[in-house]
UniProtKB/TrEMBL annotation:
SUPFAM superfamilies: PLP-dependent transferases (SSF53383). The keyword Iron-sulfur does not apply. InterPro entries: AspAT_Ic, PyrdxlP-dep_Trfase, PyrdxlP-dep_Trfase_major, PyrdxlP-dep_Trfase_small. The keyword Transferase applies. This is Aminotransferase class I/II-fold pyridoxal phosphate-dependent enzyme. It comes from Aeromicrobium camelliae. Keywords: Aminotransferase, Transferase. The lineage of its organism: Bacteria, Bacillati, Actinomycetota, Actinomycetes, Propionibacteriales. One of its GO terms (molecular function) is L-aspartate:2-oxoglutarate aminotransferase activity. Pfam families: Asp_aminotransf.
C-alpha cells in the first residue's frame, strides 16, 4: 500500500506506528556508520602481503634502483599492467603516489596558475572559471572546485551519463573549462557512461579552447556482477574527434589494494603528459617507486588485478545484496523511495520524498546511525530537491550494515509520514 493512497486516519496510524518503531530504534543505543566508501578491514586483509613486499633484497626494477630518487613517470612494470586495464597506451600513463585525488587537485591547480597546453592564459586570469558537475556526484570533486573558487553548475547524472542536452548548452559559455565524470560505476549512482555519450562528449564543440574532461575512472575494475563493464575509450574517441588533449584520466589502486597506501595513475595525450611531467618535476624528485614495485610484484599482471577484484566482490557482493534486500522489504510497498542497484563501484543512491533527505539524516543521527550529510553529492552541498542519500555499504561488518539499513528505513518511513501529514 503506497502511503499516498492512505486516508488521513490511516496515515495518522501509519505515522504513529513509525514513530513507535523510531522510538524503539533510539532506545537501542546504536552506534553505526555508513558514511564513507572505505574498504573494510577484511578487504584490506586481501593485500596483507604488500606489507612484506618487495622484500629486503628485491629493489631493482629493470635497471632501476627503486629505493632512490627519480623517475617521475613511474615504473613501467606497474604502468603496463594498468595501461591494459585502463585502455591507455603505456607511454601515456604516469604512475604516481598514493592518491588520485591529489593528481586531480594538482592538475586543476596547475591549470589555474599556468593554464593547460591549450589555454590562452592561466585559468585564474579569466574572469571566472566554471565546471559542469553531473549530480549526484563525488563530493571531493566539488570540494576542489569550491576550494579554488571555480563556479559549479549541476546537471543531472542520468543512467548513461550526464544530461547531454544541458551539457551541450553549457559548453557554449567560454568560462566552462571542465566537466567532472566518473565513467564507470559512478560515485554515487553506479551509472556507467555509454559509448554514445562518451562519443558526444569527445566531439562537443566547446567555446573554451582549453576545455577538459576530468575522467575519474576510480572504479574501472570494481565489478559486482559477472558482467565486466568496459569503460568507454575516451582517449581514442577524443583523438578521433580532433580533440586529443581533451581528456584527463585518473585512477588508483586505493580500492584494489590499500586505500591509504596505493598507487595513483594519470593518463592523457602526449602533450598533456609532457605538461604534467613539467610541473610534477618541480613538485617532487620522483614518486614512491618502492610502493609501485611492490604493487607490480603483488598484482603481477592485468589478470592478477581482475582475480584480486573477484575476492573483493566476494566480500562486497553480500553487502550490496543486503542493502537492496532491506530497502525492498521495508520500503518497496510504500511508494516512498527509489534506489540504485549498481553493477559495480562502492555506493547505492537512495532517493526519498522531496524535502525529507535532511530530516532522514537527522533522525538517523539521533538514533546513532551516521549517514553522509544530505546534499553532499551536489555542488555546494545543496540538493535542490533535498531527496538524495548516499549509502556506503563497504566498511561496516555485514550485521552492522543490516542494522544500519533497518534503522535507516525506519527513519525514511517516519520522515515520509511526517511530510504526508504536514
Ligand atoms: N574518485 C572517486 C570517484 C572516489 O570515489 C574516490 C574515493 N572515494 C576517489 C577518487 C579517491 O581516490 P584516491 O584514493 O585515489 O585519491
Amino acid at each position: 500500500m503506497t502511503i499516498d493512497t492512505l486516508s488521513r486516519a490511516d496515515l495518522q496510524e501509519f505515522h504513529d506506528h513509525q514513530r513507535q518503531a523510531y522510538d524503539a530504534l533510539k532506545q537501542a543505543g546504536l552506534s553505526l556508520d555508513i558514511t564513507r566508501g572505505k574498504p573494510s578491514a577484511e578487504q584490506l586483509d586481501l593485500s596483507t602481503e604488500l606489507l612484506t613486499l618487495p622484500g629486503a633484497d628485491d629493489y631493482r626494477a629493470g635497471g632501476v634502483d627503486v629505493r632512490n630518487y627519480g623517475g617521475n613517470t613511474g615504473l613501467p612494470e606497474l604502468r603496463s599492467i594498468f595501461a591494459e586495464l585502463l585502455s591507455v597506451p603505456v607511454e601515456q600513463l604516469v604512475a604516481g603516489d598514493n592518491a588520485s585525488l591529489s593528481l586531480m587537485h594538482d592538475t586543476i591547480l596547475w591549470s589555474l596558475v599556468h593554464g593547460n597546453p591549450d589555454s590562452p592564459r592561466p585559468w585564474a586570469a579569466e574572469e571566472k572559471v566554471t565546471f559542469i558537475c553531473p549530480s549526484p556526484g563525488y563530493d571531493r570533486h566539488f570540494a576542489i572546485c569550491e576550494h579554488y573558487g571555480i563556479d559549479m553548475v549541476a546537471v543531472d547524472m542520468l543512467d548513461d551519463g550526464p544530461d547531454m542536452a544541458a551539457v551541450r548548452e553549457l559548453v557554449k559559455d567560454p568560462s566552462v573549462k571542465g566537466i567532472w565524470l566518473v565513467p564507470t560505476y559512478s560515485n554515487p549512482t553506479g551509472a556507467v557512461i555509454s559509448e554514445a555519450v562518451a562519443a558526444e562528449l569527445a566531439a562537443l564543440e566547446t567555446a573554451a579552447p582549453d576545455f577538459r574532461i576530468f575522467w575519474d575512472n576510480a572504479y574501472a575494475v570494481h565489478h559486482l556482477t559477472d558482467e565486466q563493464v568496459k569503460t568507454a575509450d575516451i582517449l581514442g574517441l577524443c583523438a578521433s574527434s580532433g580533440h586529443p588533449d581533451r581528456p584527463l584520466i585518473y585512477a588508483s589502486t586505493s580500492k584494489i589494494t590499500l586505500a591509504g597506501a596505493g598507487v595513483s595513475f594519470f593518463g592523457s595525450s602526449p602533450a598533456n603528459i609532457a605538461w604534467y611531467l613539467g610541473h610534477a618535476a618541480v613538485r617532487a624528485i620522483g614518486p614512491d617507486k618502492v610502493n609501485q614495485w611492490r604493487h607490480a610484484r603483488f598484482l603481477r599482471d592485468a589478470e592478477g588485478v581482475l582475480a584480486h577484484m573477484e575476492r573483493h566482490r566476494e566480500i562486497l557482493g553480500p553487502k550490496f545484496a543486503a542493502v537492496d534486500e532491506i530497502l525492498s522489504a521495508r520500503l518497496g510497498d510504500h511508494g516512498v523511495a527509489t534506489w540504485t542497484q549498481p553493477r559495480g563501484g562502492y555506493f547505492v543512491s537512495l532517493d526519498v520524498p522531496d524535502g525529507t533527505a535532511a530530516r532522514v539524516v537527522q533522525l538517523a543521527k539521533e538514533a546513532g546511525i551516521a549517514l553522509t550529510p544530505a546534499g553532499a553529492a551536489f555542488p555546494y552541498g545543496q540538493d535542490p530537491r533535498d531527496r538524495h542519500i548516499r549509502i556506503a555499504p563497504s566498511f561496516p561488518p555485514l550485521e552492522e550494515l543490516r542494522a544500519a539499513m533497518e534503522g535507516l528505513c525506519t527513519c525514511v518511513l517516519l520522515a515520509a509520514a511526517e511530510k504526508a501529514l504536514a
